[in-house]
Amino acid sequence: MDIVFGIDIGGTDIKIGKFYGNELVYKTSIKTDKEDNGSKIFTQVFSIIDELKGEDNLIGIGIGVPGPVLNNAIVSSKNLGWDKVDVLQIVKEKYPNVAIKILNDANAAALGEMVKGGAKGYNNFIFITLGTGIGGGIVINGEVVEGNTGSAGEIGHIRVGFNNERLCKCGLYDCVEQYSSATGIVKTANNLRIGRKTKLNEIEVTAKNVFDLAKIGDEVALEAVNNFIEKLATALAAVTNTINPEVIVVGGGVSKAGDFLIERLEKRFNELCFFTVRGTKFALAKLGNDAGMYGTNYIVRKMINENKCL
Ligand code: ZN
Predict the structure, then answer these.
(1) Ligand 1 centre and the CA of 160: distance in Å?
(2) How far is the CA of 172 from the centre of ligand 1 (A)?
(3) What pTM, to 2 d.p., does this model score?
């Protein structure tokens, strides 16, 4: 049987899926070994591929990485300790006769959601993950937009404030990631709760707790949520005005706040976007942590079918 491995290398875990066609037949996850500037990651990945391959015929490997991918090959990732690592070359040396595709993890997840998740049936959409940070992917006519330096879709670093309040790890101030991520809303809630009457002063301030308290009417928590929504709706309106997608798919841990989040986001978005894109649909992502594996499998198989193997 011809198989492809869809792999998602994250700062915490490496997820590896074995696919027959578009069917995920086996998946496993290991802790990322970031020692020695992440040089052990390849040994980890290769040993699992060799173990899971069995008697099957390996035809492709797709790898999602947390960083921009230059020329389909070179990856710099602060999360992994990689500085201009030629991932394509390293994987190709080990598996010379196999189709290989390296892409940004959020872009991979966007494609996964198109194959099987919240963007199924759509060819033009924005995908956004709200987790510790904000990741984004843009798909136009069924193709993920990678950009000149592999950096398209970095929605998390759109500037949404002008007072230089919060320094982002990218070096700029007031990126939307600093407000509308799990860490962002915790920061906002911690600022707002001081000297106020709120349950936030009695329990641990986490993104989930802030949303849960907002749902039951805690005013300070609701203020924190509104700030989160304001910044996110601003960034999404900017991207939507630019590319006019069919749907905006929202994933990541914070998206577990569900309809409470989506309804408020959609309402504010419609007030901020250009009138011709008003009414753009919103949907929740469905694949969770599996999205990246589905997306990398999809794009490698597409490459093979189109004979565009690297
Ligand atoms: Zn930033």
Answers:
(1) 10
(2) 5
(3) 0.93
CA distance 227 to 207: 13
Alpha carbons within 13 angstroms on the beta-carbon side of residue 156 total 27
Residues 63 and 90 sit within 8 Å (Cβ to Cβ):
no
Centroid of ligand 1 to alpha carbon of 176 (angstroms): 7
Which residue is listed with tokens 């936030």? 200
Amino acid at 283: A
Ligand 1 centroid distance, CA of 177 (Å): 7
Q: For residue 306, what are the contacts with CB-CB under 8 A and spacing of at least 6?
A: none
Among 22-26, 72-76, 219-223, whose mean pLDDT is lowest?
A: 72-76
Distance 165 CA to ligand 1 centre (A): 12
Question: What tens digit of pLDDT does each residue of 108-145 get?
Answer: 999 999 999 999 999 999 999 999 899 999 999 999 99
Query: Do the beta carbons of residue 278 and residue 270 sit within 8 Å?
Result: yes
Listed in order, strand segments (DSSP E) in the chain are: 2-9, 13-20, 23-31, 57-65, 69-70, 74-77, 82-86, 99-104, 125-130, 134-140, 143-144, 247-251, 281-284
Q: Is 2 helix (H, G, I), strand (E, B) or coil?
A: strand
Gap from CA of 306 to ligand 1 centroid (Å): 36
Q: How far, in Å, from the CA of 282 to the mean position of ligand 1?
A: 24
Q: Which amino acid is at 177?
A: E
Is residue 44 within 8 A of residue 14, CB to CB? The reply is yes
| Gap from CA of 258 to ligand 1 centroid (Å) | 25
Ligand 1 center to residue 171 CA distance, Å?
6
**Contact predicate 245/125, CB 8 Å:** yes
How would you class 131 by CB atoms within 10 Å of its CB: exposed for 0-12, middle for 13-18, buried for 19 or more? middle
Q: Is 135 exposed, middle or buried (0-12, 13-18, 19+ CB in 10 A)?
A: buried
Q: Compute the distance from residue 156 Cα to the ligand 1 centre, in Å.
A: 7
